[in-house]
Amino acid sequence: MTEEKIYTDYFYDEADFDKNHFRYKNLHIPDGIEAQPLAVPPVLKPDKEEGNDVWFTIESMEGETPFLPGSKTKTWGYNAPFLGQTMVLKTGQHVHVTLKNSLKELTTYHWHGMEVPGPYIDGSCHAPVYPGEEKEIEFTVEQPAALTWLHAHPCPSTAAQVWMGLAMGVVITDDHEAELPIPKAYGKDEFPIVLQDRVFHEDNQFDYRADYDPMGVFGDTPLINGVIKPYIDVTTQKVRLLFLGGTNRREWRLHFDNDLVMTQIAGDDSFLAHPVKMTKLLVGPGERLQVIVDFSDYKEGDVVNLYTDDFKLIEFRIHHFEKDDSVLPDTLFTPEDPVVADDAVVRKVTMDDHDKINGKQYSMQRIDMKAEVNHAEYWDVTNTNSKSHGMLHPFHIHGAHFLVVSRNGQTPNPNEIGVYKDTIEVAPQETVRLKVIFPKEGLFMYHCHIIEHEDAGMMANILIVDPTKPEPHYDLMDMETLTKAFAEEKGIPESEVFMPGMCTEGYMDHCHDDAHTSASHH
User: Fold this and answer.
1) Could you read off the pLDDT of 40-75 as tens digits, one per residue?
2) What's the pLDDT at 502?
3) 86, 339, 389, 489: most buried, per Cβ within 10 A?
């Protein structure tokens, strides 16, 4: 039997990494922080269950979180002071959700990676829930096991609200996953790892406006599930880690002590067709990657560290464990690979500068593309940034999954083959060909997931229609209405609403000079 290949690089050109760009912030641990157990978000309890139907309430709320010694930090979360509880859904379930906004400003609830109708259920900019308001949505889960997530997506304040804490994991399970011989005891041998960073200002508070950078906001303090210096007590030989790139801008280049092997088993929206063994793993903003780590070469009392670059993120403290001889099958998942019609148009999508798609800034009411539901297409997505000044742009599509066909005409990265994805890193001067399919009708967005970039206008709308039905009409939100709402909620004049970017629809009062002057240095 041939020895399995172990990949030992990040699959991307080091020159494109965020650490090589201006205004990159190195991570540090503030003084006075002791190591503490990784917080494992509790599983969100349903309000009720009846047969195949399940009801939940998701409340956006203000809270306080003791990240640092001294004052607690004012934060936002879902059913929690910061981040949220983990929502667990099963394929086939009919899900009813009450979206409750207890914040003092409007927000939206975007199901990133979930295949639900758009735009109102998908929760994009066009689906605001106002302060004190509750909205009911429902959908059926019709996709395979995956880690998806929920985050705020109000234009153009997505980045600011995610920075405050509005993000949580949504885990989909199915019968196939239940049969796989993989760790799945949540909080014991299976851990969600939400990778984020923040800056703490005076009195331990966040100040997004002070940190704002149109190129993307870096924090200098790591927050892993909301914990600054976490450790995990390892009590089983094998551990499954569900990584979520929850940052506004930062990429995570993960590796263990002694190049301990990680076996990737899943990507954004499904398991991989075949497991991939690696010692290095890049997780970009918006991406989810699941790995299994085998600690069989370690003994009780050992400590194994997980790093990003050379910075220690998490300590794994090895305790006594039973021997685990389980063998991962060679085939984990068989993705559907629909045929693209010979006469299908190949979509050309360019990500330009830090704020445009196909040369245009986002406009909320403009339909940029139209396509048919359940109709496979090729999309050629190009990052037009120059190699000398460019950066990796994580490209995300709402309401769809895709297969990666090629990178610059060559074979995709090994961990991109045979897996459903919805977010992919595209390097400067690179074209990635995707095979895209939208299983639901509606209006959806596609954009860069460096959140400041989407807020600045690197985003567009696609209308997905069923050609056998009359074309639906959607009341699409406009920037003027949103700006007036934010001004009212904050009790300030519209001219003072901080809404960087998206200076479109002729509504130009909110194009702040600071956004443009800082952008011009690039």
Assistant:
1) 999 999 999 999 999 999 999 999 999 999 999 999
2) 53
3) 86
CA-wise closest residue to 155 among 493, 474, 486 = 486
Strand order in the sheet with 238-245: 6-7, 271-278, 262-266, 288-294, 238-245, 190-198, 221-224
Dihedral over alpha carbons 34, 39, 108, 144 (to 10 degrees):
140
- The label of the residue with tokens 């460019």 reads 390
Alpha-carbon distances of 272 from 167, 283, 403, 420, 473, rounded to whole Å: 25, 16, 11, 8, 37
Q: Could you tell me which of 412, 520, 500 has the C-alpha nearest to residue 455?
A: 500
- Structurally, at CATH architecture level, domain 14-21+182-318 sits in Sandwich (2.60)
Domain spans in the chain, listed from the N-terminal domain onward = 14-21+182-318, 36-179, 347-465, 479-512
Sequence-ordered strand ranges (E) for 246-334: 252-256, 262-266, 271-278, 281-283, 288-294, 303-308, 311-318
Q: What is the mean pLDDT of the chain?
A: 94
Q: What is the dihedral of CA 161, 162, 168, 169, to 10 degrees?
A: 140
Would the CA dihedral through 435, 334, 414, 112 be positive or negative?
Answer: positive
Do 14-21+182-318 and 36-179 show the same overall fold? yes
- 33, 75, 169, 392, 419 from 328: Cα distances, Å: 38, 40, 25, 32, 17
| Average pLDDT estimate for 78-83 | 98
Tokens 């929850």 correspond to 246
Using the 8-state DSSP alphabet, how is residue 373 labeled?
T
CA atoms within 13 A on the CB side of 318: 17
Is domain 36-179 in CATH 2.60.40.420, yes or no?
yes
CATH 2.120.10.30 fits 347-465, yes or no: no
What's residue 3's pLDDT?
65
DSSP-assigned beta bridge partners for residue 181:
none
Q: Which amino acid is at 482?
A: L
Residues 6+ apart with CB under 8 A from 283: 195, 243, 244, 245, 251, 252, 254, 289
pTM, to two decimals: 0.95
